[in-house]
Write a structure and sequence with these properties.
The chain has about 400 residues and is an alpha+beta fold. Strand 17 and strand 18 form a beta hairpin. The chain is built from eleven helices and 20 strands.
Length: about 400
């Protein structure tokens, strides 16, 4: 770093304004003024919430303002949308010192926020305070050097954004290709195919059990019987191979142990219509349906893949109440296409082969995305230690 660079605390060269705790009772889709919450920052153009009522003009955010979310993934974002209100747990950087170029600050803040995130241990949700931001020791070169660095970063990051967007699109295309194949194979009708209900291809089809309330009572937990819930179903990749909770003998006594190979269907909340196959014997509550296939009628992997193709339709059927849900009645008369057992197994083999190839592609694209993120941080590290030469050398 050159001798003509100064080290200044962020709080000495920038004003940091915390957001206001607006009354949530006044939030509504038809409110008069958009309200910026943490989840709105990445998009940078629109909000999901509006506010009705009086407000202090000091909390009005304008296009071009730099905003930082104080919880979750740390980052500084430029607001590019219409005027909006600055909600709590979002802060704004404004009134920069005359020695500081705004875009140079923007890049630098993101670099140092990432450093703080990487160096700090968090037990649950990540938090940062305006005091921590104010205490950042920030290197400030002369304005001409700041502008030179910003020009290089703008060019380099524009190139990286194109690379990132292409990798994201390729990742999406790989998943869509697999989903389209799944739809075409499992919804076809051929000779020997029959329309059957899930009940008719099962030796057991019913909801899980958890009679005791509250369900998470510690007296039921801590034994040798795996206890899975809707989140475990949703977070699995077709097969549940791990668990975070177990039942003891008391827990098992008020529940039911389902066998390995059971097809699980989540039927309430955000995970409604998600499916997976048990990789071990386990208990689950009545928010999950269990289906033990009749092996003369159906292959459990075929059934699970089949349900994946109907997931969107099942989710739609589950809407209409305060909490999305489907139930056993949803499946009473609903029929699904079933070929012979031999054909089901052939179809499953083809799907698993394509799934392997898809996952391999997805892994490659995720590695590319991770490499791009690391390269961005490396470029920022060089930028704020006086080692940045040119964008051509960076992306070479």
């Amino acid at each position: 770093m050159s001798l003509n660079w100064q080290i200044r605390r962020i709080g000495d060269v920038v004003d940091i304004q915390n957001g206001f705790a607006f009354d949530s009772k006044r939030f509504s889709p038809d409110g008069e003024m958009p309200l910026i919450r943490i989840r709105d920052l990445k998009g940078g153009t629109k909000t999901e919430t509006r506010y009705s009522g009086e407000f202090d003009k000091r909390y009005v955010v304008r296009k071009g303002d730099f905003l930082i979310g104080m919880d979750g993934e740390f980052g500084c974002f430029e607001w590019l949308g219409q005027k909006a209100l600055l909600n709590q747990r979002v802060c704004r950087l404004h009134s920069f010192a005359s020695t500081l170029e705004g875009r140079f600050l923007f890049y630098g803040i993101n670099k140092f926020l990432k450093d703080i995130e990487d160096a700090t241990s968090f037990t649950t949700v990540k938090h940062i305070s305006s005091k921590q931001i104010a205490a950042i020791e920030f290197p400030i070169p002369p304005l001409a050097e700041q502008r030179r660095i910003v020009t290089i970063l703008d060019e380099a990051f524009a190139g990286l954004e194109v690379m990132r967007a292409n990798a994201e699109k390729n990742l999406q295309n790989a998943r869509e290709l697999f989903d389209r194949y799944l739809q075409s194979v499992l919804r076809q009708r051929g000779p020997g195919w029959a329309e059957k209900t899930l009940q008719s291809v099962s030796i057991e089809f019913g909801r899980g059990k958890s009679k005791h309330r509250p369900r998470g009572d510690a007296r039921l937990l801590g034994g040798k019987y795996p206890f899975i819930q809707t989140g475990d179903v949703a977070n699995s990749n077709h097969r549940i191979i791990g668990y975070s909770q177990t039942y003891n003998e008391a827990g098992l006594a008020q529940s039911k142990l389902w066998p390995k190979g059971t097809v699980c269907i989540a039927i309430v909340g955000a995970n409604v219509a998600e499916t997976a196959i048990l990789g071990f014997d386990a208990c689950f509550p009545d928010s999950v349906i269990g289906l033990v296939v009749n092996e003369k009628q159906a292959d459990n992997e075929y059934v699970e893949f089949l349900l994946q193709t109907y997931k969107a339709a099942l989710k739609e059927r589950g809407k209409g109440t305060a909490r999305d849900n489907i139930n056993l009645a949803t499946f009473e008369t609903h029929t699904f296409p079933f070929p012979s057992i031999a054909q089901q197994k052939q179809i499953v083999a083809r799907i698993n082969d394509l799934s392997e190839q898809t996952q391999s592609l997805e892994s490659i694209y995720r590695q590319k995305l991770a490499a791009i993120a690391e390269l961005k941080q490396s470029i920022l590290q060089k930028s704020f230690s006086g080692q940045l030469i040119s964008s051509e050398m960076i992306l070479a």
